Write the structure tokens for this entry.
Amino acid sequence: MRWAALRTALSLAVLSAAAAGWTSAALLQFGDSALGHFQWVSRDYLWMSPVAFGAVLVPLGVVLGVAGGMVRSTKWTAWVVGMLVVVATFGLLLPVSQLSRLASLTLAIGLGSVVARLALPRTVRLEQAAMRWATFTVVIVLVLALGLPSWRHWRSARALAALPAPPRAAPHVLLIVWDAARARDVGFVTPAAATTPLLDRWAAQGAVFTQAFSVGPWTLPSHASMLSGRYASELAADWTVPIEREHPVIPEILGRAGYATGAFVANLHYTAWDSGLDRGFHHVDDYERSGAQTIRSAPWTQTNLADTLLRTPWRPPLGALLRPDLSVVRQHRYQARLGGEVVDAYLAWRRQVTDRPTFGLVNLMDPHLKTRADTSTRRRYPHDERGLDDYREAMRYLDGEMDRLFSVLAAHGSLDSTLVILTSDHGELLGEHGLHGHAQSLYRDVVHVPLLLRLPGRVPATRIARAVSLRDLAATILDVTGASTGFPGQSLRLAWEDSTAATSPVFATARQQPSPLGDYPTAQGDLSGTFDSQWSYIINHGTGREELFRIDSAGKESGNLVDDPASAADLGRLRAQTEDSRRRFRR
């Protein structure tokens, strides 16, 4: 009787975990396809979510099974079902912030009571069928875990086999994005920073743009712009909205020209598969298939309480247990990937593609993290304020990884046939203007980014001081590769061939955040700005406040000169340019 009760309770726990996991997966799919929301989970959530629910419900099933063996009540099986339903339902309701925890618990208890009453007259059949159905469920989960990667690989291979022959002598393209790296602390742009001594040698062989600017202050709109040639203001991509499908993107265009395309990303907040940036890529390397990622694939295990317990499993803090924090922060529950791991993934893919040119997107998160070159410790995305030493140490770490990457490609004889573009999606504030972070303002250190282009024979070795926009990267890639014309923007080839040729306006925008933070500029309204090598102009459309800064020799912004009569002409010019760009480049 005792072992029978334990077996039944475990079987029911497995079935409950599968039901809850697949319900959670269905809700995620609905949010993705119907609502266009981010999911912030691995594409393997079809099997990871049941396993993650099992991490909570199976131990509970053991406890209930042991207790059932001692109680020996004919009603116990029905109550086991009811209690498992309560815990599973409460977990499913955790992300619903509109419901209080008490309301969620009340609903869960109500549903559990109803299910228990329905199960009561069927306990004998439940006990007989539970083991059989639990075994079948485990088999399904295993098939999904093993079959989904194989299916994706088959689909990718099939798509590559159907590609047309590429143009003769078409170069490889490698777009490297140092996430959150501001130009002022990248050595090949600002030598005084002394952060990239190894990369400086490679940079001297290409075109370095010392005044390159992002189209926005955070990851998704900037990446979307680099791939689509559109300004952030022209795109729907936002805090909870993926990039729309109506605009063609570079991997699609190059794919149609015969390129194999692959994305290798460390920023799982806003460059993973659910951001929409995976469109056109034959291979996407984002979330790891790891035990930690699997366990964190259900609302129960995405709470702050679960995160604390997972980080300190043997000595959980007493306070966390006495005052459990069940807030769900889904997008932060993953292990950060160091740059070296992403570089390794790219190199492995590049070795596999031998019969055609490649386009690779490599997103490196290290400046966004507290990464140090002398450790391989993975750290979660930090929300605390970072110091300049840690920030620059991340640049030095990536300096070594870039030297390794380029050395490997050179040894294989393909580096000089690769258009290498190294840039950043946005910069960072480390106390400037009294702020930390990036997404909430348009100050210069947030939008002024490094930019290097290298392709011997097609891109000259030069330093270009004129202001340019990353919006033009898409047109530049298509121009240099010869894959297509007529894409939005202007090729940056014009900048090194003709100093008077017009490139795109250096225009950036930031939308008001849905949950404004403190006194950050985006708490009051949308922002627009225009930048050149000498000036920064920003306007807050919520308050009407304007800011005008002259750039000193160290690349820093002066005090606000909006009311300075000597700056009136420059203010009028930049104000008019900003308004013209805002009118022309909008959805």
About this structure: The chain has 17 helices and 17 strands. The radius of gyration is 27 Å. Confidence is low (pLDDT under 50) at residues 371-385.
